[in-house]
Amino acid sequence: MAYTVGGIVPEGRLADLVAALGTALEQRGFPRVEADEAQLVVNVVDRARPRPFRRRSRGTFVAALHVLAESPPDPLREGYPVLVRALANVSLTYVPGAGVWFTTLERGSYLVPEGPRIEDLAGDVATRLTPLASSRLVIDNEFRTDLEPELWDGDEHTESIAAAGRRLDDLGLLPAPFPVEDLVDEQDLRHIKRLYGIGGLSYGNLSEREDERRFWMSASGVDKSKLEQPGRDILLVSDYDAENGRIVLSVPPAVEPRRVSVDAIEHWKIYREHPDVGAILHVHAWLEGIPATEVNYPCGTEELAANVAALLAAEPDPAHAVIGLRNHGITATGASLDEILDRIAPTLLLQVPMA
Asked: How many of the other CB atoms lie within 10 Å of CB of 226?
């Protein structure tokens, strides 16, 4: 892995942080290289007009770094538009004297506080950045028109997923996403979809097992309260091409499918390792006292999937468990989506704790 610094670095405390961050990254095995060779880019931007770093590879991880004079009243609403408009994987808002606010695509926002030495802050930021930049996204889809005709209109599992999506809406568990299309132009929106493998920013996902190997799952970027058409809004995951990092989907021949949720790799791993799991629910909410991942890996990465699966395997009953995703939400397993919601809805916290 190697890094580079993009953009124009203004003089002052931000320049000091960039220099110290470079040293910290090099100490962690990230040599500085030319832009075309970097896997991690610290892109210094103007928050009013954040200029994107136009990466050539989806595997390049971009952190959009900007400075504010004082802590924002709502760090998420400060950092998220910068993240989107800068086409970044994470937004870093540096407030001299306070620290660096991280804002992720999954709407996590948390402060890495500044101490007396800027080198310590840079080290803490680098410690947070390096595992994220080193993770492997699995967001490509391969569509095969080999779905059995008897499943073209779905079955009891697609009906269950659609009903659970409506129930999530009734419970207030489908937060309104930021209107990405209002923040970027059409060209940048297309670029975002290509980079992140998403058709839009909607939150949460649902799946139910079809058989020993396959499962139905909600699509990416679709309103989860309106999961209407099997093969388009709800997709059958039939395989995982590990060599190429590609989720394989079986679809009807006459339907234009959406992309499956970016969390498909996590669900695939859980279903494969735990044959008693009948359904999986992911929402941006929380439960007290649950085990949680230590690193907030991006959604759709092998590392997040492996972390969640490992925590699940350590539970007394992996088929009926809840795992926390740090600064993000929860993944819950059960016999069915209704069973999961009946079990966890009474004690769900709508606010995810950030740390």
From this structure: 12
